[in-house]
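Methods: example folding runs. The two proteins below were folded one after another, and each record is reproduced exactly as written to the output file, sequence line first and structure-token line second.
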Amino acid sequence: MKNIYILLTLAAFIIVPTGISNAQELVVNGDLELWDDPNNPTSWDNAESISQATTPIHGGTYSAGHTSSDSGTQDFQQNISSIVGGANYTISYYFLDNVTDAKTRIWSYWLDGTSTIPDHAAELRPGTYSSDNPDWQLFTVALTAPANANGFRFEVRVYHEDNNTGGLVYYDDFSFMAAGITPEPSNYPTGFDALAMGISINLAWTDAIGGQLPNAYLILASTEDNITAPVDGTAVADDVDLSDGSGALNISYGVEQCTFFDLESNTPYYFKIFPYTNGGADIDYKNDGTPPASTATTADVTIIESENFNDGWGNWSRVSVSGEQVWEIDDE
């Protein structure tokens, strides 16, 4: 019995709850300890008017000085990949501004490929600047990546102050930390409603509430009443082409609406909405119970010509109306 007791005790120590993940740092050389040369820290993509500094420092041996210029805004930037839409991240860095001829602020974007995403403008592109202070200041914010984000442009800027230039602000210890995995959302959203507008259907809902809020929602669409719940660990990509009878959209928490366009006329469409946390292989849907569902039928219209111009001009021809022509109204 003594041996059995020891084995059971060891087993108790190695059993850990599933669904817990360590945080992961995504900024490379965020502590600015590695430099290719005195003006270019290693792994940073853009370093305008940046210089290596040994004092002041927040940690380690080096910081980065950023000099204001009369030629305009100067950028310091690193593009981060492997962002997961719907996942939680903490963004932070230290700055020191104690001069009257320079000021700084963050000016960052979520990315979808190379395209910027406008979400979180107040946090990532504020309207205010730094103010003079002899001490290091911490910028930090926790955000949920938009559902369509797969990258992040971590950028800070320096500006001249009151037309005075040549001042230095300093940065150190940049961090972009992926948070641990969060549990499944506590509840479904409410008031899920579909409304046909011609051959488009608008969907609206009220965000879910409860102990664990979702990061985003998956809306599934079908021309048949046969929608099945998504599977945990398998993310579903956006599919806005319902010509094959099914589609999907991922919508961030807080948006509370979306639209499916260019649908077949006089056709019923069925929809279900599933809140989720995390993303990628860690995505965790609320897929138990009865998900909210709605249906709407598009207008009974005859479409003579349809062209969304997404892939060119289609059957349309470009006509220029510039010139000295005189245009008149013929009311006969």
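Second run, written to the same file directly after the first:
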Amino acid sequence: MSQLYNSIEPNIIDDEMVQKAVEEQCPEDIEKLVKREGINLKDVTELQLSFRNILQIDNLWQFGNLTKLQLDNNIIERIEALESLVHLVWLDLSFNNIEVIEGLDTLVKLQDLSLYNNRISKIEHMDTLHELQIFSIGKNNLTTLEDVIYLRRFKNLRTLNLSGNPFCDDEQYMLFVVAHLPDLVYLDFKLVSDTTVSISACEIRQEHLTEHLLCWYASNILAFRAGSLQKLGLQKHAAAFVEYLNGSFLFDSMYADDTEAAKLAHLPGVGDLLQAYPSWFVSVCENLFNYGLKEYEKREAEVSNFYESLHEALTANQQEGRKIILDFENRNKR
């Protein structure tokens, strides 16, 4: 338990706290009436329990028709006892001590969820929240950027706050998030532009293609090298590990016998994609080819400089050795 509790008296959600909260949020003109005659908790649709030092969620089963619940700025450690709140649309659990996302399975109507400023290290256990539109999980302990991919299942998600997490320091953070969640309108309180979406999508596609290409190429390079080098210059390409990358050979050999690719051509809209894809693939190959040659030439230059320096050092040593021997012989003649 946090040392913070040494100076804070933890509370529980009891009948007195609930009754007081309901009375406080009633309009002044009917507050006295509510205090005198009471209120049916099933009629309450909104409940604010902020800043009450609540340690554990409990005793909310009476609010069967609740649509909005504020539990922010407490000391809650677990998300629990919310099973009966099946009509909940808005839930605020920000500024607590929650470490794990859990206990949300029955909240299938939830549209707005805030877990801002907690201790959460992984985005998980939210599979049933199909209606989610706004999600705030900034200022937690999220370190793995790939966790964002989990949010792709929420087709209605338009507003997302991840700011203040460790993975936000990654230079690819913004592009990665927008590429995997292209329907976002707001990210970290900022409007997502169409330009950002386009750039990020292209970069992610190229990154995935390059990874696929390198893996495939590595597994098949021995087969390529088995053939004889028939043209002038291929020996250099082989030494640079870029043979057969300066053209369409790699693409043709990968897709020549691909029957599944031929089937895809019959799907609507795929025809145009298949026409553009080969040239783009070849362009990536050529980029790899040029990069490989550049690195090879750099290595060759470094090796050449090394041997030149070695030769100069050997020559200098030989000359110095001859001089020493000559001086020795001259001294002995005297």
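Comment on the second run: The first strand starts at residue 11 and ends at 12.
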